[in-house]
Design a protein that fits this description.
This protein has about 220 residues and is mostly helical. It is built from 9 helices and no strands. The longest helix has 18 residues.
């Protein structure tokens, strides 16, 4: 059953045009080195009051925790997914050595990204910047897991169990739903949505880091004959 609200499941805009506010390449490289050493400070993310309708929609969006089971109408789409899985697994090998863990992680990233109307490459880039793919990463402000979800989200739209944010699918579900929420608030402006996610809205360093990391995980689908 599809539990997403219309607001959450709207398609993601490209976002490439949002990089117009980028820093110089040398400055970006310096920031990349800084963030490679430690998780990003998602703790600066602001806890904002939510309208009841928005809270209910977000709660519904994270409620269904069924394991990811991708379904494909066309054979070519399934084959492209399998090619993506193999390609990303190779790229991720140095960060996650265990093949079973790596495949489970990538399957969940793909499922939760698509479920929220996000690009898997964008979500992988955000994870790279936020936690360096560390499941149990905790920021100085208490943000948790792969996507550095702040504990207040567990209270606002979840069951209140902060420890659940270390569960693979729970963490990715929250992170993707939250980013989708910010993207909707910002009317599709990915630059501003990423700034909200990090608590640095309107400032370029964090969005540019994610945009740069996203390139590492780009995948060009093959064209059907």
């Amino acid at each position: 059953m599809n539990t997403e609200s219309t607001a959450i499941s709207a398609p993601l805009l490209s976002g490439h045009g949002r990089q117009r506010r980028g820093l110089a390449v040398t400055a970006l490289a310096g920031w990349s080195g800084l963030f490679a050493a430690a998780p990003a400070q998602a703790g600066a993310q602001v806890e904002e009051p939510l309208a009841d309708a928005v809270r209910s929609a977000l709660s519904r969006a994270i409620a269904n925790s069924a394991p990811p089971k991708p379904q494909f109408v066309e054979t070519e789409a399934r084959l492209d997914y399998l090619r993506w899985l193999g390609e990303m697994s190779e790229r991720l090998r140095k960060r996650q050595a265990d093949a079973t863990t790596r495949i489970e992680f990538l399957e969940t990233v793909w499922y939760e990204s698509k479920r929220a109307g996000l690009e898997p490459a964008l979500v992988l880039g955000l994870i790279q910047v936020e936690s360096g793919f560390r499941k149990y990463a905790i920021s100085s402000a208490g943000a948790r897991g792969y996507m550095q979800v702040m504990p207040f989200w567990a209270r606002l739209i979840g069951g209140g169990d902060v420890t659940a944010l270390f569960h693979l699918q729970t963490n990715l579900r929250f992170g993707c739903v939250i980013l989708r929420h910010y993207l909707d608030i910002e009317r599709g402006d990915l630059f501003l949505a990423l700034g909200r996610y990090n608590g640095s809205r309107g400032r370029a360093p964090y969005p540019n880091l994610v945009f740069g990391a996203r390139k590492t995980w780009d995948h060009k689908p093959s064209l059907a004959a």
